[in-house]
Specification:
By secondary structure, this protein is an alpha/beta fold. It is 36% helix and 22% strand. InterPro entries: AMP-binding_CS, AMP-dep_synth/lig_dom, ANL_N_sf.
Length: 698
């Protein structure tokens, strides 16, 4: 059949399928669009993608100024007071830094706006020119957001760089964008000094006033030609010498966001103000009751589009942002001094964003505590969990209101307190969230999880599951800023004519689709296309399928599919997501080789879980590394993975036939995962090439 005829008929056929569907609410509706033939959906409430929610507001700078005028006395940016830093020695002899943190200290919208104006004017006094670029290379904090908005008021493009980026990628990003001013924190300044000889264009370094940073400043002044200034000094210069704003237009580039580079060197994604604003306006319509009473806990990297969009959404509605970090999030986090409250219990957020890896950790932490208590406490938890799960799955209702109150009071109240006790909505993005984790968090925190799908190239916009959608494993319907289209990928066997659901490569169109890759026209032309109607589309490389209610499910990724020796296809990401719920797994990378008929895996093991098993089964060991080498331990974890795989209905060839247990965590600092905690497959393969070879040789 003519492919263009398919492109016209497919939406009509899909529309009929919708009309006959029996599962209620339609969240995504068919729409006829241009470009490659396929099946396209839109948000059920909007005929066309939204660009802005306010007349006259077309940039992030204008949005910020509007909110500061509407909510001048409302708390905006909160930072915890640092009381002391202390060093503790762990049982294995490692020195660990512990922080004693106090209450949150707040800046109002009016105070934050003044700080932004001062910083903006200070950049002028510093000699930074409008056409030059600024890089922000620091952990998430209030100064990061103020610096960003300060740059926007001068129409300066900001280059965002993960604080965990390695030296080679860091120098590449700064040189490619010809950055002249870098804004950084203490540990980032040390990294900059180490590569100062490799940086071609940097003239100014603005450092955030960290305790004890003076030695790094002195070292930098001694070894570089940079002009070093603190954020406070820049703001003071601006306060004494105010300059008029030079506000951007919607089409001006706001951010060049460097991806964390899961393969090769990072790519700089160019986002204009209109791109980000459209995502902000779209998500605002999805989160229930979002408003000025909401408190948001900011701890994910602001160099990640998910966090950048989330903070601007909170500002748009007049909410409050309290800053924290993954290492101080809860009372038991690694860097929290014993007896000190974590960020979440101290702040009491109502809304949070999270990546699946962090939610998996919360689930595992709760599960381990419950299992450790045992006895009546464990039985009560398991019974309460089962009752709530029955109700959520629709197989039991009963006097649900009263019983829900009972279980929340008796069982789940203490678990909710881990994140402050007031969380009413969680946004998950960055990677697929397992159904088990989603249900666990739903039940234990009593809050819906809005699982979203988007990419840096689409400003995090794509799809989003609504609060009343209790299904798991899906990523929702199209956001109001996007059209979502599936196109055939015959080579992989995914077609829009597939039954019972159309499948294909996911293509995202709308005002949130970014401009392209910085200085990389070839790659831009490969994955970005403009159709005959002028709409811009991004070809994601992800494979999805549409459910009959118009929600999207991610089922594969082109790059993750490997064909085994006997012709079976293995989707690495799909299998890893299924096996990640195994209680022994902290992280896992599946490896498939076309010259073999089976898979192998590298497994980062949960130390408490494996050591607990060893103690109960009389397995002796000298240290955790030794335990990971024990044949009995490998056999136990392998058996658990097989059980988990069968439960997830994986094929036999998808479950790893041989595994290697690894004792040390994969962190962004180790370079084995990105700042968003995604696997860097090629790096891991090279790092553990010998181990992988032995698995196939054994």
């Amino acid at each position: 059949m003519n492919p263009y005829l398919v492109g016209v008929l497919a939406p009509l056929v899909f529309s009929l399928m919708f009309r006959n569907a029996k599962n209620g609410k339609k969240r995504g509706l068919p729409v006829v669009v241009g470009g490659d033939p396929g099946i396209a959906l839109r948000n059920y409430r909007f005929l066309a993608p939204v660009e802005t929610a306010w007349e006259g507001i077309s940039t992030l700078a204008a949005l910020f100024e509007q909110s500061c005028k509407l909510y001048p006395d409302k708390k905006l940016l909160g930072t915890r007071k640092l009381i002391s830093r202390e060093m503790e020695v762990s049982e294995d002899g490692r020195s660990l830094e512990k922080l004693h943190l106090g209450n949150y200290e707040w800046q109002t919208y009016a105070q934050a706006f003044q700080a932004v104006c001062n910083f903006s004017s200070g950049l002028v006094q510093l000699g930074h020119q409008k056409e030059e670029r600024v890089a922000i290379f620091a952990d998430t904090r209030a100064e990061w957001f103020i610096a960003l908005q300060g740059c926007f008021r001068r129409n300066i493009t900001v280059v965002t760089i993960y604080s965990s980026l390695g030296e080679e990628a860091l120098s590449y990003s700064l040189n490619e964008t010809e950055v002249t001013t870098v804004i950084c924190g203490r540990k980032e300044l040390k990294k900059l000094i180490d590569i100062s000889g490799q940086l071609d264009s940097v003239k100014h370094v603005i450092y955030m006033d960290d305790d004890g940073i003076s030695s790094e400043v002195a070292l930098a002044e001694m070894n570089t030609q940079w002009k070093l200034t603190s954020v406070a000094e820049v703001e003071k210069m601006g306060e004494e010498n105010p300059s008029d704003a030079d506000l951007p237009a919607s089409t001006d580039i706001a951010v060049i966001m460097y991806t964390s580079g899961s393969t090769g060197m990072p790519k700089g994604v160019m986002m204009n103000h209109g791109n980000v604003l459209s995502t902000v306006c779209a998500v605002m319509t999805i989160v229930p009751g979002l408003g000025s009473k909401d408190v948001y806990l900011a701890y994910l990297p602001l160099a990640h589009v998910l966090e950048l969009a989330a903070e601007n959404i909170v500002v748009a509605v007049g909410g409050s942002i309290g800053y924290g970090s993954p290492l101080t999030l809860t009372d038991t986090s690694n860097k929290i001094k014993w007896g000190t409250k974590g960020d979440a219990p101290q702040l009491g957020p109502t809304v949070m964003a999270a990546v699946p890896a962090i939610l998996d950790r919360v689930r595992d932490g709760v599960r381990k505590k419950v299992d450790a208590k045992g006895g009546l406490a464990k039985k009560l938890f398991d019974f309460a969990f089962a009752r709530v799960l029955l109700a959520m799955n629709g197989s039991w209702f009963g006097a649900w209101g009263l019983e829900k109150f009972l279980w929340n009071f008796l069982v789940f109240r203490k678990i909710k307190a881990i994140l402050g006790g007031h969380v009413r909505f969680l946004l998950s993005g960055g990677a697929p969230l397992s159904g088990d984790t989603q249900r666990f968090i739903n039940i234990c925190l009593g809050a819906p999880i809005g699982q979203g799908y988007g990419l840096t190239e689409t400003c995090a916009g794509g799809t989003f599951s609504e609060y009343d959608d209790t299904s798991v494993g899906r990523v929702g319907a199209p956001l109001p800023c996007s059209f979502i289209k599936l196109i055939d990928w015959p080579e992989g066997g995914y077609l829009t004519t597939d039954s019972p659901m159309p499948r294909g490569e996911i293509v995202v169109g709308g005002p949130n689709v970014t401009v392209g890759y910085f200085k990389n026209e070839e790659k831009t032309n490969e994955v970005y296309k403009v159709d005959e109607r002028g709409m811009r589309w991004f070809y994601t490389g992800d494979i999805g399928r549409f459910h009959s209610d118009g929600c999207l499910e991610i089922v594969d990724r082109k790059k993750d599919i490997v064909k085994l020796q006997h012709g079976e296809y293995v989707s690495l990401g799909k299998v890893e997501a299924a096996l990640s719920v195994c209680p022994y797994v902290v992280n896992i990378m599946l490896h498939a080789d076309p010259f073999h008929s089976y898979c192998v895996a590298l497994v980062v093991v949960s130390q408490p879980t494996l050591e607990d098993w060893a103690a109960k089964n009389g397995v002796t060991f000298t240290d955790f590394s030794d335990l990971c080498q024990k044949e009995e331990a490998v056999k136990e974890v392998q058996g658990s993975l097989i059980k988990t795989g069968k439960k997830a209905r994986l094929e036999k060839f998808e479950i790893p036939a041989r595994i290697k247990l690894l004792p040390n965590a994969w962190t962004p600092e180790s370079g084995l995962v990105t700042a968003a905690l995604k696997l860097k497959r090629e790096v891991i393969r090279k790092e553990f090439s010998e181990e992988l070879s032995k698995l196939y040789a054994s």
